[in-house]
Amino acid sequence: MSAVTERPARGVADDPSRSGAQRRRRTSVAAPWVLLGPFLALFVLTFILPIIVAIGSSFLRVSRKGVFGEEGVTTEFAWFSNYAQALENGNFIASIGRMLLFGVVQVTVMIALCTLLALLLESASAKWPGFFRAVYFLPYGIPGVIATILWSFLYVPGLSPIIDIAGAMGIELDFLGAGTVLWSIANIVTWTYTGYNMMIVVAQLKAIPGEVYEAAKVDGAGPFRVAMSIQLPLIRPALILTTVFSIIGTLQLFAEPQVLQTVSPAIDNEYTPNLSAYTTAFAYNDYNVAAAQAVLIAVVAFALSFIFLRLTSRRAS
């Protein structure tokens, strides 16, 4: 009599091909997160976490007992008192108004100039466009502090050949006076960032299909007509992007006025919003009010960018 041995039926879970497919699926899902992990960790530590800490600090007040806090330090929730103190600072409010005026003039001039340069370099009659693109972009590679020092030699009397030549002609120039130093800073910023914004516009121009230009040529459109009717409408997204970046950068202005402060008495420690927050934190040692100022700067930048995007989207519709 022979014994019959029954083999148990193999389930789906015991199927080697099915389990291998599941492992490959899990690996394919986890692989992107493994690759993105270092970037996400740095992004959280260097961007998200400082924002959270700044917002949290803006609602706190640190009280120190004694001359140097040797008798104890207490931290308490201050609600919106830091924001009220920041808004009561007339110099801080004046710095925001000053940067709004700066942005209206400087951003408009810079966007118009970078658009004009991009259109000229991408025209059919342009000679050596690659060379001139590199030349115009070169100032962006110079750090803002170095650029300001270089330009200061053209602003300081006794060092500037421009002032000497104008003086010989009977013209008095004062690039560092109370009424002109803001536009001297605007000149530095325009010189630095026009080439950078031009490259963004050039990239948008290169994305225009060649068939569009051929159709315009068949219709007899000249260079001016092509620029006004084809190129400008199609590079509108690039112009919006560069304008938004420029609006945000205007409120972040810091290095140029801080460097020129050494040669221009018209620039005080709270000449721009960022310089005011820096002074509040490191000169007055009031980090909580400085955090409130930083949050207010971010809110103003967000509000201006949002308003500009709404206005441009409404015009497009």
Automatic annotation (TrEMBL):
Pfam families xref list: BPD_transp_1
Membrane topology: Multi-pass membrane protein
Official protein name in the record: Carbohydrate ABC transporter membrane protein 1 (CUT1 family)
Annotated transmembrane regions: 33-55, 99-122, 134-155, 175-196, 234-255, 290-311
GO biological process, one term: transmembrane transport
Residue ranges annotated for the ABC transmembrane type-1 domain, each copy included: 96-308
Source taxon at top rank: Bacteria
Ranges of compositional bias, category Basic and acidic residues: 7-17
Region (Disordered): 1-23
Keywords: Cell membrane, Membrane, Transmembrane, Transmembrane helix, Transport
SUPFAM superfamilies found in the cross-reference section: MetI-like (SSF161098)
Family: Belongs to the binding-protein-dependent transport system permease family.
